[in-house]
Amino acid sequence: MPFTRKSLALAAVAPLSLALTGCMGGEIPSASAPITQSEAQQGAEAHPQLLAEFGGAMTGSHADYVASVGKNIAVQSGLGNARDSFTVSLLNSSVNNAFAIPGGYIYTTRQLVALMDNEAELAGVLGHEVGHVAARHSQRRQQAAQRNTLLGAAGAILSGILLGNSGLGQQLGQTFLQGSQLLTLKFSRSQELQADELGIQYLDTAGYDPRAMGTVLQSLAAQNALEAQLQGRNNATIPEWASTHPDPASRVQSALSKAQPLGTGVTNQDTFLSRIDGLMYGDDPKQGVIEGNQFIHPDMRLAFSAPSGFYMVNGTRAVSINGQAGKAQLTLAQYGGNLETYVRQQFSALGGEQQRLEPQTLQRTTVNGIPAAYGTARVNNGQSQVDVVVFAYEFANDRAYHFVAITPAGRSNVFSGMFNSMRRISSSEASAIVPRQIDVVTVRSGDTVASLAQRMAYSNGQEARFRVLNSLGSNDTVRAGQKVKIVVRGR
After folding, report:
1. pLDDT at 237 exceeding the cut of 70
2. Closest by CA position to 433, among listed 278, 306, 277, 303
3. pLDDT interval class at 466 (50, 70, 90)
């Protein structure tokens, strides 16, 4: 979370997500119309904004490898007749996500790449996204995109459950969703399934094993379930923000059955593992890191703890705290040196043009030696009463951070412990935060899943994490000579 303040308005280009949407059916086009001048312009305009929203584009050998595989699979679509027709970016994001936009721009996050087992799976993920573009799914959902933009269908979920459907609810929903890196336009089930099938066709024509589409969906479903388990969420199938769409598990059998009549092809597993060795995994310390229930930002020199039963998602412009009893977000805004004015400004921004929102109470305090101020307001979201809290901290004369929290009326104290946990961190604590990375190792004689998992750089769920990362079932073992991925602390 570098806390930039860039806005993102992507309705016109409709970014497409593999990780966030479910879905295959419908007629499969035999050939795709080439990229039009209008589509190329749309993509060129949106590309810098997308890079900023998703942590920026990585450079170096890992990015070069992903770009090479992505261009090779994209050419199979007929959208462009040369590899140079496409721009493939490896994003510095810890969210499992991939998408593409018209104009030949294709994206995947490093986190999703690390989850994969071979090059065919990488080609399958990128091929799925290219399939959305080839089938012009974004154009077909243009009207919906104009209504939903980045707020998207997940915004409707938030608005309906907690924020209400009033103008205020929509404004609050936008506030809580921006910068989360999780929200892209959701497609229909048939469109997702069609994109899967197109990706499978591209795999086959490129000489890859077409079953890779099904196996990468299995890995993604397992990762979703693991994250839900580690975060203590009841729904161990998909994250809450994707609950209105089918999860990857619902597409696995369809993808595998579509691939069965085709050839086997290659997976290029050894090449893939050697090329992703050393890839950053998890949060980038420059954006802050989540360690258990604690968020630590070494550059901003701050840390806080989320309430028990809540989980955090780190984005490029904010870190969000999510639970059944409420939602909160930590970010920053322009600070003029007066905390009370700052808090009032944040309430005004929440209300937007449709409704003037002011704190009904406003108090000064000190939290762990940090000057602070907080305001509260009870508002009608169109369906019920909710409490909105803005809690701000002055870290310097020209720098302040603030939480925005929303809960059902009378429940705002659920975040009291979090508000009071904000603290400055020392230079030694900041320097101790180092990134995790993928270490590809060869299993030696005597190694076991348990012994290898002990080397995972986590304090909990080591074996479960290791198994999901390497697509190992609960009863699967490892053999000498096999290559596996381990997450270790970098240097």
Report:
1. no
2. 303
3. very high
DSSP bridge partners of 323: 326
Closest to 54 measured CA to CA, from 317, 241, 300, 327: 317
Long-range CB pairs of 169-173 (<8 Å, 24+ gap) are 169/381, 169/382, 171/350, 171/351, 171/352, 171/354, 171/355, 172/350, 172/381, 172/388, 172/406
More confident residue, 366 or 15: 366
Whole-number Å distance between alpha carbons of 353 and 344: 15
Report DSSP letters for 218-257, one per residue: HHHHHHHHHHHHHTT-S--SS-GGGTTS--THHHHHHHHH
* Least confident window among 262-266, 294-298, 421-425: 262-266
Name the residue among 237, 204, 232, 205 with its Cα closest to residue 220.
237
CB 356: neighbour CB atoms within 10 A?
9
Six-digit token string for 361: 């109470």
**What's the pTM value of the predicted model, to 2 decimals?**
0.81
- Find how far residue 127's CA is from the centre of its chain: 19
In whole angstroms, give the CA distance from residue 30 to residue 268: 27
Alpha-carbon distance 230 to 10, whole Å?
32
* DSSP code for 33: P
Lowest mean pLDDT among 106-120, 163-177, 375-389, 463-477: 163-177
Token pair 């937007």 is found at 352
| pLDDT given for residue 192 in this prediction | 79
What are the tens digits of pLDDT across the range 326-340?
Answer: 999 999 999 999 999
The CA-CA-CA angle for residues 332, 336, 341, to 5°, reads: 85
Structure tokens at 473: 């079932």
Q: What is the pLDDT of residues 65-93, one digit of tens each?
A: 999 999 999 999 988 878 899 999 999 99
What is the side-by-side strand order in the sheet with 302-305? 289-291, 294-297, 302-305, 423-424
pLDDT at 458 over 80: yes
Please name each of the domains of the chain with its CATH number.
37-141+185-281 (no CATH), 285-431 (3.40.1000.10), 436-489 (3.10.350)
* Stretch 120-125: mean pLDDT: 96
Amino acid identity at 283 = D
Could you give the dihedral angle defined by the CA atoms of residues 283, 284, 288 and 291, in that order, rounded to the nearest 10 degrees?
40
Please list, in sequence order, all residues whose beta carbon lies within 8 angstroms of the beta carbon of residue 396, skipping any fewer than 6 positions away.
none
For CA atoms 297, 298, 299, 300, the dihedral sign is: positive
